[in-house]
Amino acid sequence: MKKVFLTLGVVGLLFTTSCKEENKDITVEETTVVEESNEVAEAAEAALADAQAEVDAAQAKLDAAKEAGEQDSIDAAQAELDAANASYENAKSSIEKLGEDIEATIDNTVDGAANTIESVKDGAENAANDAKEGAEDAANAVKEGAENTANAVKDGAKKLEDAITK
């Protein structure tokens, strides 16, 4: 019986020490990415609205210059309108690029989170398999110990019976 308990104790210690606890810090910063993206998008929208206001003001100056019929004023207003339109188009293309960048960042964050989840899932499956194997090994060791003890008891009983019958 002592052998059984000793075997169980050794198997239990082996099983306990073979299990590795791996703590992995998993941080998904999608909230930060979304908040920063929102701030940048709001700033870009404000810049686009300012550019549109410049276009509207330049158009109003051009219309006023055309009503006055002064060619120098019309040329200056037209140049100002062209510059305002260029500024507006630059702001618009920047916003489109920003949208693509934000989408790519979010996609990368989601992909990274999916990969992290898959890694955690694989780790959990491996740990479960290791635990199952450890339990099977422990059960086999207990079974073997019990068989050895039973054989030892049978041998002792046989020897005792032989000694008594002699």
The helix content, as a percent range, equals over 70%
Cα-to-Cα separation, first versus last residue: 28 Å
Query: Roughly how many Å is the radius of gyration?
Result: 40 Å
The parts where pLDDT drops under 50 for at least 5 residues are: 21-28
Instruction: Give the integer mean of the pLDDT values.
Output: 79
Task: Please describe the biggest sheet, giving its number of strands, its sense, and whether it closes into a barrel.
Answer: none
Overall SS class: mainly alpha
Write a compact overview of the structure shown.
This protein is mostly helical. The chain has a domain at 33-110.
Map the helices and strands:
Blueprint: H1 2-18, H2 30-68, H3 71-165
Coiled coil: 34-108
Region (Disordered): 127-147
Keywords: Coiled coil
Q: Would you mind describing this structure in some detail?
A:
The protein is built from three helices and no strands. The protein is rod-shaped and about 140 Å long. α2 runs antiparallel to α3. It is 91% helix and 0% strand. The two termini are 28 Å apart. It is mostly helical and 166 residues long. It has a domain at 33-110. The relative contact order is 0.13. The protein has helices spanning 2-18, 30-68, 71-165. Residues 127-147 are annotated as: Disordered. Residues 34-108 form a coiled coil. Keywords: Coiled coil.
